[in-house]
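Sample pair:
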Amino acid sequence: MIAIQKQLEAQKFESVMIIQVHDELVFDVADRERDDVEERVRREMEGVVKLKVPLKVKVSGGATWYRE
């Protein structure tokens, strides 16, 4: 999580991490940065530790955090 935030700041992204809820990270992502942010988050979260069973990250997006 910290590495992701540092990358976003260092690369001067408009997108920002706004909250962590248990095992979820919530971002406010600029449309033009979406693919890049998704790839960075997936790479960092899946590669944080090496385990016998690989970590898998599900990335989803929407206009709001609310799901029906």
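The helical segments are 2-10, 34-46.
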